[in-house]
Amino acid sequence: MSAEQGEPYIKIVNVTKNFGEFTALRDISLEIFDKEFVCFLGPSGCGKTTLLRAIAGLDIQSSGQIFQKGRDISALPPAERDFGIVFQSYALFPNMTVRRNVAYGLENQGVPGKQIEQQVTELLQLVGLPEQEDKFPAQLSGGQQQRVALARALATKPGLLLLDEPLSALDAKVRTHLRHEIKELQHKIGITTIMVTHDQEEALTMADRIVVMNQGVIEQVGTPSEIYSEPASPFVADFIGTTNFIKGKLATRQSVQIGNIAIQVDNPSASLVTGSEVLLCIRPEDILTGERAIDVANQVESVIDRVEFLGSFHRVHMLPLAGDGTELMIDVSVARAREIDLTIGSSLKVALPAMHMNVYPSDN
User: CA–CA separation, 250 vs 175, rounded Å?
Assistant: First the structure.
């Protein structure tokens, strides 16, 4: 579900969090809408978990405000905020059965016994564990424990679900299966959800919108498609997926000079000045080869340095186009690889479509 119009469900305004002299969050502002599934994505230490904990009241921000459905929750303790949370470790009570774990929050709220029994039964059905209710956490697989933790977080019918890297402790196959289950469950219940992850594949497959963070600030907010296809910075382009960075100079508003090669570009940022050092960014899968490259602008030719077979495609590494030592990576499908010569040392002509290139100012 994309962001809905109207008042945001969560509104974060100029939030900063300091730990002594270290600034973990720096002037963060963000809006999250009702029923959205939003992922906070970034490398370790980027501030994503600190922001989640600030929303939960587990680490109160140093300055700024947080609103939930228009209510200022900035200084409220966790018990007075409306959320359920699943931690990376699940934090299940080892001495309680599955049923007792799920019922725990309801019992603390003084919900009548018959109502607790009915709600727990419904939740265990919802997460696919109706036959595991009398087992203890140690008797369950990691994936089953994760489902129990989800059911417990949802038992009190919170308005907000917070997920702190809930899949990172699982093996790859289980992780892939459960991320689909979590997304389906979130859609079925219609609960606003925020998930912290460092796994770009998780974010791309699960999120309605992704918040990419780096060094305590937000680099970009957008749909998975926007984040991947139109990265706002070299950091985003490099962190999400694989990309080529090619150094050059902005020769005109429509071209970049790479050595003695002029490359046409579409709509570089107005802030870029002609003659300035720039970085061209293009995904390996967007570079055209063979017949697809004919009659396309920005044709270049180089020598194949090495080839990696990656299952459904070959990643071809070309010798640098210019003297800066930057190689060019090209992804060639297995089917197309049968049509062109990928012998190491052979020459290959390719095209760099202007519509798929992003231009950034160079850090140098």
Answer: 44
Given this model, what pLDDT does residue 175 score?
A: 85
- Residue 215: CB partners within 8 Å, gap ≥ 6? 26, 45, 46, 47
3-state helix, strand, coil in the chain (%, to 5): 30, 30, 40
Euclidean distance between CA atoms 183 and 206, whole angstroms: 6
Look up tokens 């998975």; give the residue: 224
Question: How is the beta sheet containing 10-19 ordered, strand by strand?
Answer: 22-32, 10-19, 63-68, 71-72
Closest CA to 144 of 131, 157, 163: 131
CB 90 within 8 A of CB 178: no
Is the pLDDT assigned to residue 240 strictly greater than 70? yes
3-class secondary-structure state, position 82: coil
Question: Token pair for residue 234?
Answer: 């070299």
CA separation for the pair 58, 84 (Å, rounded): 13
Contacts of 73 (CB under 8 A, 6+ apart): 57, 66, 67, 80, 81
Sort strands 299-309 and 313-318 into parallel, antiparallel or unpaired.
antiparallel
Phi first, then psi: what are they for 94, rounded to 5°?
-70, -25
pLDDT mean over 281-306? 90
Q: Which residue has the tokens 């424990």?
A: 145
Q: Is the pLDDT of residue 237 over 90?
A: yes
Q: Are 128 and 140 in contact, with CB atoms under 8 Å apart? A: no
In whole angstroms, what is the distance from residue 318 CA to residue 303 CA? 6
Mean pLDDT of 329-353: 91
- Per-position b or e across 333-349, b if 16+ CB within 10 A of its CB: eeebbeebebeeeeebe
